[in-house]
Amino acid sequence: MEAEAAKFIGAGIACLGMGGAAIGVGNIFGNYLAGALRNPSAADGQFARLIFGFAVTEALGIFSLLVALILLFV
Three-state SS for 60? Predict the structure, then answer.
């Protein structure tokens, strides 16, 4: 009984990473937009970094979901 509760608690804590990823994506795009509005000529040069930051942040969210699912079903 206690092991089941510990699995659910651990999975819930692991899911907090998905919320952090959502906040991170908002931060990335918000800062890119603020920088692009201040210096529009440099926006094209920063677009590749924007996409890379988005991909890494989303990957961390997906990894936290994977950890939660592993905790629940293994």
Answer: helix
